[in-house]
Amino acid sequence: MDDIVMVEIPVSRDAASALGDEVRRAKIGKLVSDLLRPSSSSKDPLASLIAQIKADARADGLTDKEIDAELADYNAERRV
Prior knowledge:
Strand content: under 5%
Shape: extended
Low-confidence stretches: none
Number of strands: 0
Number of helices: 4
Distance between the termini: 39 Å
Helix content: 55-70%
Oligomer: single chain
Radius of gyration: 17 Å
């Protein structure tokens, strides 16, 4: 990361505790920067993470339809 600036964001107490480690804080900073401004769509860490989770679910025998249904149920619960 070339141009580093400090920002404050609200996080849980547990997350704040975990961010006390300088190495972890640097890794999280890079992850946040990459999530907000990925250098290319193929390097989008969130897309990569979702793809890996879906691949793991498929390896466990779930179909895309079942995965999508689980995500829809989860999202419905979060909106209530």
